[in-house]
Amino acid sequence: MEGSRLRGLLSNLLVQQWRSRAHGVDSLMPEGAGLSVDPARTPITCYAQICQNFCVGNTARSGAVSNRGENGIMRDGSSRPLAVVTGASSGIGFELAKQFAQNGFDLLIVSQSERITEAARSLESLGANIETVQADLADYDGVEQLYETIRSSGRSVDSIAINAGVGVGGDFARDTELESELNLIRLNVTSPVHLTKRVVKDMLQQGHGRILFTSSIAGTMPAPFEAVYGASKAFLTSFAQAIRNELNDTGVTVTALMPGATETDFFHRAGLDDTKLGVSEKDDPAEVAREGFEALMAGKDHVVAGSFKNKLQAAAGHMMPDTTVAQFHRKQSEPGSANK
């Protein structure tokens, strides 16, 4: 617990140090602290470096030589901070995991898909220690399985990216299946609330932590033919901003990542292949993840990631009448609109 609190203190001190340089102020680091940082580097890369230097010293003094127990679960004493990423087998989730790995984090990655094993092998090549959990987070027991794995690791979670989600496209009254939409609500709404409730209490106890929710610009407007999906993302954005406010001055920050159409298998899985959205040019998931990661590390409340068009659409969703933006979305998501 002492190590967790000190890592949180170092994180906050580092951000202050970087900001002081940006404004031409002398270093805020105490002399003799052994925490010198290359001025050319940003807090994103420096944070993990300082945590690593600090923890290596503690590990050497304690005589620890391994961060894994006999069951393969990562144990406390690792020289790297730990991040958890859900929905990490592909798309934005996988790219978020890559961002963490490239910036000095160990990872616990989660997906219902068997592809999570392949994702882990790819991420290990970046030098990160990887633990995988294959679980259905739309199921209560799946979330509890993930949380038990976190607790069993004996490590504090520095950051968690709650990214797993699913879409359902089609006419709500005539075409879509009720069970598909209830499953969407369980994964996109119930699961993030459940997992956050578990993890945030530990973050409060350790005195620091970062939570990233993958929402969507679809949550800024009514979303015909994605009615339940859009509503789920509106909930997630509101939930993120509300608990962020509640967590003021606790050392725990909450950030909402709000991408637009991104080049993943989302549209195919949601049955939106024959829509204008489905065939439109889309953003690179690696770029979306990079913007989300940087916003998380900077402690921002949200980021509209991807193209400038996304920022315009998000602004329109807030400023224009709901009837107007609903009609705009309809033209993009209506079945058969790809050929119109």
CATH class of the largest domain: Alpha Beta
| Alpha-carbon distance between the two ends | 59 Å
How helical, in percent, are the residues? 40-55%
Low-confidence stretches: 13-43, 50-73
Class by helix and strand content? alpha/beta
CATH superfamily of the largest domain: NAD(P)-binding Rossmann-like Domain
Main pleated-sheet profile? 7 strands, parallel
Spatial ordering of strands, largest sheet: 3-2-1-4-5-6-7
Q: Please write the string of helix (H) and strand (E) elements.
A: HHEHEHEHEHEHEHHHEHH
Q: Given the C-alpha coordinates, what overall shape results?
A: globular
How many strand elements?
Answer: 7
The radius of gyration computed from the alpha-carbon positions, rounded to a whole number of angstroms, is 21 Å
Give your account of this protein's structure:
With 340 residues, the protein is an alpha/beta fold. It has two domains: 1-65, no CATH class; 80-339, Rossmann fold. It has twelve helices and seven strands. The chain has helices spanning 2-22, 43-62, 91-102, 116-124, 140-153, 178-206, 227-246, 266-269, 276-279, 285-298, 308-319, 322-333; strands spanning 82-86, 106-111, 130-134, 157-162, 209-214, 252-258, 302-304. It has a seven-stranded parallel sheet, with helices on both faces. Helix 4 links the parallel strand 2 (106-111) and strand 3 (130-134). Helix 1 (2-22) runs antiparallel to helix 2 (43-62), helix 3 (91-102) crosses helix 10 (285-298) and helix 6 (178-206) packs parallel to helix 7 (227-246). It is globular. 47% of the residues are buried. Residues 13-43 and 50-73 have low confidence and may be disordered.
